[in-house]
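## Example record

The block below lists the input lines for one assembly entry, exactly as stored, with component labels intact.
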Amino acid sequence: MTAKQHPYGSLPRQIPLGLLMKAILSSGRLQHPQKGSFSLPQSLYKEVRNEAIQQALFEVCQKIEQYDPSHEVMAWVNFLLDRRFIDACRKYCRQGITQVPRDTRVELQHTQTQEDFDKVTSNPLDCDSELADLIELVESDPEGIFSREHIRKRSDVTFQAIFLAKFKQDRTWEEITEIFGISSISTVHTFFGRCLKKLRPYFQKYL
Amino acid sequence: MNNQNTMNPFTLTIPVSFEAHEIAEEHSQKHANLAKAKQVYLNTLAVLATEFYLKCLGLEPNWQASDSCDPFTQTLLDVADLWVNGYGSLECRPVLSGATFCPIPGEVRSDRIGYVVVQLSESLQEATLLGFAERVDSEKLFLSQLRSLVELPEYLHQLQPTTNLGNWLQGVFESGWQSLETLLSSPEAMSLAFRYKNGIGRWKQIDWEGDRDSVHLKMILEPKQTSEEMDITVEVLPIPGQAYLPSDLHILLLDEVETVMMEAKARDEK
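Predicted C-alpha cells for the full assembly:
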C-alpha cells in the first residue's frame, strides 16, 4: 500500500492514511470482540469497543510499516482491535474496582450528553462570578501590570483598556478597533492573546 | 479500493474516547457558569477529536501549548484552538447534527492557519470531522463551503512552516533544532555558553537542493531584563570542512506576516 512506502510524517503518507482510516471505519467489518463473554456490564460494551477502535486506528497508522500486504487489511486491523479491546476492558475494570457496582455506566463514565446540559437550568444569580472576579482584578490592577502592557507604539492602548472595553462595557472587537483607532482587528486579537499568555501567572496568583 | 463517494465529500467519524470525555469534563468543571461550561466541554471534544486525527496522520498537534487549554482564556474568550508544531494554530469548532453553518466568534477569526469543523453526535460519543476552511471572513462558516478533509494534509504542507521563537523560551523547539553543545567542540561551547548565559540557543543544518554546500544556522534568543523584547542573534556558518559561506547567500528574518525584520548578505571578503 502506498502509505507504507513513504517516510513517517511526510505528506505522501498522510493522505493515504486518512483514506485508510475512513475505509476501515466505514467497512462495516470491524469485529465485535468478546461478544458472548464480555465481563463488564453490557451497557458499557459500546464504549469499551469505541475506545478500542480508536486505539487500534492509531496503532494502524503508527505501525503501517509492519503491515504485510500479503495478508488482508481488515484481518490485521481486527487482530489489533482484539488486543486493544482487552486493554480497554482492563482499564475500565481497574477504574471501577473501588466503585459500588450499581449503575456502573454513570459512575464510570461521567459522560455528559446534550440532554444533560439542556436539562440543567442556569441560575441567573450564579451567572459569571469568574468573569466578575477577572474584571475586578484587571480594573484594580494591584501591580500596575495591566496598564503597563500596551500595543507597540501605542502606549494609550493598554491591555487594561481593551479588557475593560470588551468585558465590562461589552463592546465588540470591531468597536474596540474603531474606538482606539487601531489599523486592523487582528492586531488587537494578537496583542490580547499574547497578553493573556504572559499575564497568566498574575491571574493565577490573585484568583 | 474503489473510488466510491466521489459525490460525497470526505468526512471521518471517529468515536470519542473515555479519556476525551474525562479531559473535557475536567476543564468544563472549572467554570461555574453553565453556558460557559457547555461551551468549554464541546470545544474541548472538538479539539481532542482533531488532535487524534492529526496524530494518526503523523503530525504533531500539541493541545497543552494551545490557548484553549488555559482556564482564563476559556473564561474570557470562545476559543478552540489546537497548536500544531511547525505550522500554527488550527481552530476546531464543534457543531451539532443538522447545522448548516458553524458560528465563528470574532476572537478566533485571525491568527489561525485554518478552521476544522467537527460535528458531535447527540450522545456526544461520536465526532465527525466534516472538513476545513483556510480562513473565515464572517461570523458564519457555511458547511457547504468547507474543503474536503482529505485535502488538509496537502494544505498544511504548502503553508510555510513557521518557527515559533516565543515557544523556545518555554523549552519547546520544533524538530530539527539541536542544542549548541552538539555543534561545538568544548572550548568553543564553553565560551559560547558564557557569552549567552541568559539566552537560549539552537542550531540547525540547512541543506540546499542541488550542488551547494550546506550551512549551519544558529539562533540565540536573549530576553532583555527591562522590557518585553528579546535580542535575537542569528549566525550562519559554513559546515565544518568548508571555509566560506556560499557567496550569494542572503538571509531574511521574517515575522509571521512575512515582514522583513532583519537582513544580511554574505560578503565577498574572507
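Residues 1-9, 97-111, 120-126 of chain A have pLDDT under 50 and may be disordered. Residues 73-96 of chain A form the longest helix (24 residues).
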